[in-house]
Amino acid sequence: MPEAEDIFETGDVFRDRQLVRVGHVPELDRVVGRDREIEAVGSALAPAIHGGPPETTIVYGKTGTGKSLVARCVIREGRRQAAENGHTLASAYVDCSDYGTETQASREMARGLQSTLGESAADTSIPRKGIAAADYRDITWELLAAHDVDAFVVVLDEIDKLESDDLLRSLSRARESGKSDTMIGVICISNKIEYRDRLDERVDSSLQDNELVFDPYDATQLRSILDHRRDAFAEGVLEEGVISKTAALAAREHGDARKAIDVLYEAGRLAEKEGGEIVTEAHVDASLKKAEINRFQRLVGGQTPHVKHILRALALLTAETEGTQFRTAEVYDAYENVVTQTESSPLSYDRVQRLLKEQAFLGITESEHTGGGHGEGSYRVHRLLRSPEVVVEALDRN
Ligand SMILES: Nc1ncnc2c1ncn2[C@@H]1O[C@H](COP(=O)(O)OP(=O)(O)O)[C@@H](O)[C@H]1O
Ligand SMILES: [Mg+2]
After folding, report:
1. If you measure from the C-alpha of residue 369 to the centroid of ligand 2, how many angstroms do you get, rounded to a whole number?
2. Atom of ligand 1 nearest to the CA of 31
3. In this predicted structure, which of 14-18, 276-280, 342-346, 373-377 has the lowest mean pLDDT?
4. Which residues of 192-228 are buried (b: 16+ CB within 10 A; e: fewer)?
5. Is 232 in the pocket of ligand 1 (CB under 6 A)?
6. What is the pLDDT of residues 226-251, one digit of tens each?
7. Domains, the chain, ranges and CATH?
8. How many whole angstroms from 95 Cα to the centroid of ligand 1?
């Protein structure tokens, strides 16, 4: 039995863990490297700060590029400044990946508006269920009217997850259809650039839309983002070079701030688990590897046992030989070896060949036709796109 007070012992690595957890929304002045984007979102909101109509904006960019953060921070600042000028700017933030149906999204919008209106709107009842999306929107218009709201900005985050266009359409037409006198603007956010064409059709042409693309962060930007979270760790715990290394690797792989922060957090947790007092570059490597194994495990988790045997075979070939790419026949032999060690019997050569093509399609392996040398026919070779250690470890865990 451990001593009672030791059960919840956390160690001395972290001082303020929250700073490296997702969901932490820093103040605008702690948002690094997004000046152009902050200005662009700001200028769409600017009219509302002075009593005019906010403009609708469409924001694209890969995950972890600060889209949600910038939208939230700029709106928070905009509301403050509008209030200073004597205008009511209300807002609602809807994460469509959590609220994907029209009803859920419309309810969330009404609730978001209610909470930004504060005390005076607290009595309005917003039923949990039993009413339609249009009813939630009516509640929204009523709230706007009852509180003399001058302008209303709705963020539809991850809008590609929203099942239909109704909410967006009714927001863009609320004024002309006489539902609301409030000036309404929408910030549509999508992680998918391909979504642009679809959204262009969806947004009413009467809306002026400003388009904005967030690029992945480079190493310098990631370094300052991580540097601003340094206080998450106790004084002197982060070894020199830990932040630059995390930033450099993250910039090379994806430029995603969320993932970079996660890697730093996980490195701290690994140090903590070891009972150590220093977070080293080796912890960063271990943290990255762990994340990679987790991702790979999710990717292959749903695959059949034979697909896993094939991947293991390719991983063993890659680990045990000099080569990086292997002919179908070589992979098949290795696969037969792997299968022999299990209870099952191997699939046919043709079937394995087909599965290998499928894996290439999933992006787990790469496969191509090679001309072969003089007099040889053409043949197909396969290459693993992850390190064999990662693959084997993920398969072992499965
Ligand atoms: N420029 C930045 N400065 C500080 N923190 C940032 C910055 N950009 C992103 N982050 C942090 O990274 C994480 C992901 O950002 P987020 O805005 O959610 O990305 P996206 O919405 O583009 O996927 C959040 O925890 C956020 O606080
Ligand atoms: Mg987001």
Report:
1. 40
2. 3
3. 373-377
4. beebeeebeebbeeebebeebebebbebebbbebbee
5. no
6. 999 999 999 999 999 999 999 999 99
7. 11-19+218-300 (1.10.8.60), 34-214 (3.40.50.300), 302-397 (1.10.10.10)
8. 15
